Amino acid sequence: MEQKEVEYKLLGRSLVICLPYEVDDHSCQNLKKDTDEIIKHNPVNRIIFDFTKTGFMDSAGIGALLSRYRKMKALGGETVIFGEDPRIRRILKLSGIYQIMRSI
Amino acid sequence: MSNIEAKEDEKWESMRLEFESHSYNEGFARVVVAAFMARMDPTVEEVDDVKTAVSEAVTNAIIHGYQSKEGVVIIQAKRKEGVIQVSIHDDGIGIEDIKQAMEPLYSGVKGGERSGMGFSFMEAFMDEVNVESEVGKGTTVTMTKQLGHTIYE
Lengths: 104, 153
Fold this sequence. Notes:
- The complex is a heterodimer of chains A (about 100) and B (about 150).
- With about 100 residues, chain A is α/β, with parallel strands linked by helices.
- Helix content of chain A is about 35%, strand content about 25%.
- Chain A contains three helices and seven strands, in the order βββαββαβαβ.
- In chain A, strands 1-2-4-6-7 form a five-stranded mixed sheet. Chain A has a two-stranded parallel sheet with strand order 3-5.
- In chain A, a hairpin with a 2-residue loop joins β1 and β2 (about 15-20).
- The longest helix of chain A has 16 residues, at about 60-75.
- With about 150 residues, chain B is α+β, with helices and mostly antiparallel strands.
- Helix content of chain B is about 35%, strand content about 25%.
- Chain B has helices at about 5-10, 25-35, 45-65, 100, 120-125; strands spanning about 15-20, 70-80, 85-90, 130-135, 140-145.
- In chain B, strands 1-2-3-5-4 form a five-stranded antiparallel sheet, with helices on one face.
- In chain B, α2 packs antiparallel against α3 and α3 (about 45-65) packs antiparallel against α5.
- Chain B starts with a helix and ends in a 7-residue tail after the last strand.
- At the A-B interface, β5, α2 and α3 of A face α2, α3 and α5 of B.
């Protein structure tokens, strides 16, 4: 079964954002609100975007990533990318996002 | 339409899809267009390209055209000899300055949640992107791709 919604895990001070199969405007709707809430109550200094389960992404996903990057940067933390397959890498490369976020 | 155009048009196989402007229909729209392409024997990358481009245009129709309010999005697609053309239409607010809207990183939505890369993605993944829009009337984005031409890394 494809993962439909964003899932969150706290690993120490890292917030792992497990992205769904399709990362688009619809699936990213609550990402800002949800992460803001978690960050407010936990000492997060790193966001890890986990693309392990993702097979599709469009520019709405890029917008969501950039927004979280700015938030973490303002807090002095970092944002990294994990588990992206070649299709997702193509989209990320096209967006230029690797210039500000590293893949771990 | 002249008779010549009409005759040429007979060679195209086409489809039309109409749906409500809810964000959950973005995935639905992508899948329908991907299924329509299936008979053209596309590569996985070509299907992904068209799905992404369709997703961008449909998201624009819902977010910008209809401002996330109620409306109807119409997709028309046709295929002929390895060429696919998809047009996405809304009867929303329209675009005042198409040139500005298509600029990389420009977003008509304030708040920093949008990448402003929608049209750039459409242009990167399709061979041609044409935008027709009238303020207060709506927008039609027509995109064309020739299959078997793109070289993928």
